[in-house]
Specification:
Blueprint (H helix, E strand, L loop, with lengths): L6 H28 L1 H13 L6 H24 L3 H22 L9 H13 L9 H11 L2
Helix pairs in contact: 1-2, 1-3, 1-5, 2-3, 3-4, 4-5
């Protein structure tokens, strides 16, 4: 039984998969169903057109977010390039938080932002060497064993 992952490794894997699926599926929908321009228009440009934010920044962020969610969500599930993926998802969560607070200063975050942030913070603070069920770990072991 010594080849089985530890309970901590399984906890990280499960958290990574839940977090990754949440963002991957959101990104999939926004890229392939709504379209990046449709997402930008509906969630960035229309709601914040009259804010102090430049219109170009709303279009740029609104079209980029779906691809970040899709790509980073997939990377998180695979456990590959974990840290850059976590940073990308954290950036999305900060942007979402800022946007909601700009539109509604007393926005309730307990149903949307907090669960995602909690999962993200959990996997981010766990020691990378404990995440043994990941491509990063597997590829690191392979590199160390090669001459």
């Amino acid at each position: 039984m010594k080849n089985l992952p530890s309970n901590r490794a399984l906890a990280i894997l499960i958290a990574r998969w839940i977090l990754g699926l949440i963002f991957f599926m959101a990104g999939w929908y926004k890229v392939f169903e709504m379209g990046p321009a449709g997402h930008a228009h509906k969630f960035f440009v229309d709601p914040y057109r009259d804010s102090f934010l430049p219109l170009w920044s709303l279009w740029a962020a609104g079209t980029a977010v779906p691809f970040v969610e899709l790509g980073a969500g997939a990377l998180v599930m695979l456990g590959w390039f974990r840290r850059p993926a976590y940073i990308g998802l954290g950036t999305v969560l900060v942007m979402v938080t800022f946007g909601h607070l700009l539109a509604q200063p007393l926005y309730e975050f307990h149903t949307h932002v907090i669960p995602r942030a909690a999962l993200l913070l959990f996997v981010l603070v766990m020691p990378a060497e404990e995440d043994t069920v990941s491509l990063d770990h597997w590829m690191g072991r392979r590199r160390k064993s090669q001459p």
